[in-house]
């Protein structure tokens, strides 16, 4: 496999890992009242994910929100963009 192919595969794996992690966070907060759940998911991601993680997550899903659960779609606009690292 070429170096570019490895980079693409690594990026796809990273994006899938972030989606899985976000899904676990959403699973936890789905027991919260509906009005609080999306804000709580976004707050957790904003507090505990690095800027790079948030940036990669948003870049991957802002134009493909249908790939996320309904709760993550609601949280997406509340996630702060990353500034790297």
TrEMBL record:
InterPro entries: Formate_DH_dsu. Pfam families: FdsD (PF11390). This is Formate dehydrogenase subunit delta. It comes from Bosea spartocytisi. The lineage of its organism: Bacteria, Pseudomonadati, Pseudomonadota, Alphaproteobacteria, Hyphomicrobiales.
């Amino acid at each position: 496999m070429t170096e570019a192919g490895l980079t693409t595969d690594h990026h796809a794996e990273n994006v899938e890992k972030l989606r899985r992690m976000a899904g676990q966070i959403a699973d936890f907060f789905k027991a919260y009242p509906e009005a609080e759940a999306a804000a709580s998911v976004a707050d957790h991601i904003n507090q505990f994910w690095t800027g790079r993680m948030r940036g990669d997550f948003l870049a991957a899903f802002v134009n493909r929100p249908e790939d996320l659960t309904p709760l993550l779609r609601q949280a997406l606009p509340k996630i702060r963009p990353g500034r790297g690292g």
